[in-house]
Amino acid sequence: MIDRVLAFTAGLTVVLFVVDSVVRTFILPRSQNVLLTGLIFRSIRVSFDAAGKFIRDPDRKENLLALYAPVTLVSLPFIWLLLISIGFMGMFWAVGVKPFGHAFLLAGSSLLTLGFTPVDGLVQTILAFSDAALGLVIIALLIAYLPTMYAAFSRREALVAKLEVYAGTPPSPIEIIARMSRINGIKHLRELFTLWETWFAEIEEAQTSFAPLNFFRSPKPNRSWVTAAGAVLDSAALTLSAVDTPREPRGALCIRAGYLALRHIADLFNYEYDPDPRPGDPIQISRQEFEAALDQLELHGVAIRQNRDQAWRDFSGWRVNYDDVLVALSFITKAPVGVWSSDRWIDRDYRIKRGSKSSGKERGDDR
Q1: 85: Cβ–Cβ under 8 A, 6 or more apart, which residues?
Q2: Is the pLDDT assigned to residue 145 strictly greater than 80?
């Protein structure tokens, strides 16, 4: 008798655990770390990373990485259905379906609504109906989930693709400012920053609600939402700190929207960052790189402020707000090479720091 109670309890616990994972992954409209979903994603990621080590060609490696999110997303319902079958197998066995093999056949037959294994009695009938209903609900949720997620993906990628007009490929903050200067459009950077301020708010909502969306790669192999975000944020930081032009409040608001969005997305992966850095804290851009960027801008005819020491301090004060999480997200998503973002960890021994979620407290120089 005790073994039946334990089998039924264990089976019910497995089913409820899976249902909780399904609800939190597909239905709950907020950022949450789902244990089972996270385990599935990390397990498949290990396989893809291992396979990627044997691929030297960058294009083939990019094609492999592009499959990671779709393959994992398709795997989720199969793993959930398998676990539900195992859970109901324990419950069927507890109510008299012997042996375990027959209990598993009955659980699978009911779950997939095949009906080739008969049930006996009211209790088994109730369990079979519950099993079938769960299977139908999971498939229906997946069918509804995919179009919604792909709609969010399309909205995200529309502006990423448009950035190539301003930033080139891979996207560069220097190219954004230089190109706008060549067409006498520095003053129109306000429009760019306004668009991306809205974009940051949208991706924060979408990519914390649909966690797999973070790993869906752009249609073009040399594009990425992470490197695009970094290019826009750095162009705003350079404009505010070093370009001799009237102060642009939209640039400051764009940076604020950007670092808040990137932090909230980093929270989804339990990435541990400093929630309150100081303007003088180190960043992953060197003074020499900054000076070289200003020299390039001057060659393109961009007016640069004379006091470069102050410009460097101001740029560091802006960059420190998003520096750490930008590079971390580049690493997590294995983003293609981008200026001052994914190139900070490629060919380096970069290791992601994991810990408890950061408090989300605002940080840095809000100026």
Answers
A1: 104, 107, 108, 111, 131
A2: yes
